[in-house]
């Protein structure tokens, strides 16, 4: 399949230079100069330099970087709230840089929804009116817009607050209104510029959890700006890290944290524990020996001995985990003349799924003396994780990151 068909957003060679005669910067040798040099020579501020990336439909894409790195400039350029100096921005295959005012308004009202850090609510409008506002400017009939606003309000968990003014709501609730307002028009793309940065850490975490849940339901394409690595790692399918107006690394949370491209990214990820991003799937192993429930204890004993293992998982025909045996159990099965392994097994084996974070494996590991079994959603065995593997996954990453 042609991959570009699933691209919801394609940004290609986008530049933003603030200041007069800005075209001179990117069309001369200055295009490679540092931000400081450009400012010194021309008085122009380099906002974005040669930015390219693509985002698939339904993807959660995070832009991360320090203050001043160009995140807001970039997200605003996408719908031309800031006019790019050069480059192409395709949304659903259409070059929005070529749009006239009419198409541009349509893009902002119907195709994208924006959530800002400072909520941006109208203080004299009720929650319901604020959420319905986007539909109003779009010209939707009153009944329709209130119906849809009501739905969006319920989606973000604010039922009962429809007739209050924003001032009566806490920060977290106000941001829910902001989110509901963006969702009410059912946009294809949600643009979120540090939406949770103004909130208390606890509320912020809660909002992140809710956004993850919400995204599961609505499956929007989301462009999300943050300067918080943990937030990026928690929310993003992919993360782009910006510095001085450029994207210097782009990848999945795992790629970013395990292979930072340079010391800037490394500084970012330094305090992020790999345990918060690595999943069971990335560290599980294929055991040397797997036994099956229809096998007899004698065969099992021989196999166990030959593989020099102390215990082995026992699987069913469908590769479901039935339990675990060790020498002792096999011995007693043999003495009892048991026909096959299904008869007496250790079944209190710790289990997890391939998506389980390494962080969540710690309590499992300490509660069991056997390896943790990794199962798929149907209970089929995928691999195992030993305590040693968990520890290695931690120490292999950590000192390397902390080195420089
Ligand atoms: N209107 C403007 N005129 C001149 N320079 C600007 C303008 N807007 C932004 N800039 C500059 O562009 C650069 C990027 O700013 P931007 O606001 O995009 O950063 P940011 O990554 O969003 O930072 P923050 O985390 O603080 O929000 C900065 O150097 C800023 O000074
Ligand atoms: Mg910003």
Outline type:
elongated
Q: What's the main sheet like? A: 6 strands, mixed
CA radius of gyration is: 27 Å
Query: In percent, how helical is the residue content?
Result: 25-40%
Class by alpha and beta content? alpha/beta
DSSP summary, beta strand count: 16
Question: How far apart are the first and last residues' alpha carbons, in Å?
Answer: 43 Å
CATH structural class of the largest domain? Alpha Beta
Question: Could you explain the architecture of this structure?
Answer:
- With 404 residues, the protein is α/β, with parallel strands linked by helices.
- It folds into 2 domains: 58-85 and 99-274, P-loop containing nucleotide triphosphate hydrolases (Rossmann fold), CATH 3.40.50; 281-393, CBS-domain, CATH 3.10.580.10.
- It contains 16 helices and 16 strands.
- The chain has helices spanning 23-26, 35-42, 71-77, 101-111, 127-137, 142-155, 171-184, 201-218, 229-235, 253-258, 263-269, 280-283, 297-307, 327-335, 358-367, 387-402, and strands at residues 7-18, 45-56, 60-65, 86-91, 94-95, 112-115, 189-193, 221-226, 238-243, 246-251, 290-292, 311-315, 321-326, 351-353, 372-375, 381-385.
- The strands form 4 sheets. It has a 6-stranded mixed beta sheet with strand order 6-7-8-3-9-10, with helices on both faces. Strands 2-1-4-5 form a 4-stranded antiparallel beta sheet.
- Helix 5 packs parallel to helix 7, helix 6 (142-155) crosses helix 7 (171-184) and helix 13 runs antiparallel to helix 14 (327-335).
- The longest helix has 18 residues, at 201-218.
- It is elongated, with a radius of gyration of 27 Å.
- Mean pLDDT is 88; it is low at 396-404.
- Magnesium ion is lined by residues 71-72.
């Amino acid at each position: 399949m042609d991959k570009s068909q699933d691209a919801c957003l394609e940004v290609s060679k986008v530049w933003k230079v603030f200041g007069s005669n800005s075209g001179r910067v990117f069309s001369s040798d200055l295009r490679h100069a540092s931000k400081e040099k450009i400012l010194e020579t021309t008085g122009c501020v380099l906002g974005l330099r040669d930015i390219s990336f693509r985002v698939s439909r339904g993807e959660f894409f995070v832009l991360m970087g320090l203050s001043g790195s160009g995140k807001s400039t970039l997200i605003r350029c996408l719908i031309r709230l800031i006019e790019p100096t050069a480059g192409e921005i395709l949304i659903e295959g259409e070059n929005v840089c070529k749009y006239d005012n009419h198409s541009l308004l349509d893009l902002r009202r119907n195709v994208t929804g924006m959530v800002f850090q400072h909520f941006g609510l109208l203080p004299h409008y009720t929650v319901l009116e604020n959420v319905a506002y986007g539909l109003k400017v779009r010209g939707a009939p009153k009944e329709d817009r209130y119906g849809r606003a009501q739905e969006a309000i319920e989606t973000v968990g604010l039922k009962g607050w429809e007739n209050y003014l924003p001032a009566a709501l806490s920060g977290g609730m106000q941001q829910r209104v902001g989110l509901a307002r963006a969702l009410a028009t059912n946009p294809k793309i949600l643009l979120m510029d540090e939406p949770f940065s103004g909130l208390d850490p606890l509320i912020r975490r809660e909002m992140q959890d809710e956004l993850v849940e919400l995204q599961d339901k609505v499956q929007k394409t989301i462009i999300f700006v943050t300067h918080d690595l943990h937030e990026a790692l928690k929310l993003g399918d992919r993360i782009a890290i910006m510095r001085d107006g450029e994207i210097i690394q782009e990848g999945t949370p795992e790629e970013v944290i395990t292979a930072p491209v340079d010391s800037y990214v490394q500084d970012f990820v330094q305090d992020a524990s790999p345990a918060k991003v690595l999943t069971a799937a990335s560290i599980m192993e294929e055991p040397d020996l797997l036994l099956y429930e229809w096998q007899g204890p004698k065969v099992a004993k021989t196999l166990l001995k030959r593989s020099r293992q102390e215990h082995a998982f026992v699987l069913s025909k469908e590769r479901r985990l039935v339990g675990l045996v060790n020498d002792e159990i096999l011995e007693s099965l043999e003495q009892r003349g048991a026909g096959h392994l299904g008869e007496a097994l250790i079944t209190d084996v710790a289990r997890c799924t391939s998506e389980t974070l390494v962080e969540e494996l710690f309590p499992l590991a300490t509660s069991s003396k056997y390896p943790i079994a990794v199962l798929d959603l149907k209970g089929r065995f995928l691999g195992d994780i030993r305590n040693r593997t968990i520890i290695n996954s931690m120490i292999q990453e950590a000192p390397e990151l902390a080195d420089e």
